[in-house]
Amino acid sequence: TLMMVAVLLLGLLGYHLLSVSALPEVDYPTIQVFTQYPGASPDVVSSSITAPLERQLGEMPGLKSMNSTSSDGASVVTLQFD
Predict the structure, then answer these.
(1) In the beta sheet, which residues pair with residue 75?
(2) What is the pLDDT at residue 82?
(3) How many other CB atoms are found less than 10 A from the CB of residue 46?
(4) CB 4 within 8 Å of CB 48
(5) Averaged over 14-20, what is the pLDDT?
(6) What PANTHER family does UniProt report for this protein, alphabetically (predicted)?
(7) At 24, is the secondary structure helix, strand, or coil?
(8) pLDDT tens digits, residue range 40-56?
(9) Domains of the chain listed by start with CATH number
(10) Which residues touch 81 (CB under 8 Å, ≥6 apart)?
(11) N- to C-terminal Cα distance for the chain?
């Protein structure tokens, strides 16, 4: 029981010493754009949503890479910056 109390106290101390940030510094700045088009097929999502987004987002300065996925009723475009 003494060991359990020591572990509990050390855990509480460690918890209070953890640093928490609302906006942590990230070494690899990444943005994901999620869109929904309920009931649309992957081909429709790709031509109506994903392709226009890629054209516009591809012009952003500092863009290192861009990946996209179109599925039934949804699209995800991932942008990674320098």
Answers:
(1) 35, 70
(2) 85
(3) 17
(4) no
(5) 85
(6) MULTIDRUG RESISTANCE PROTEIN MDTB (PTHR32063:SF21), PTHR32063
(7) coil
(8) 999 999 999 999 999 99
(9) 28-82 (3.30.70.1430)
(10) 29, 30, 31, 60, 62, 63, 64
(11) 52
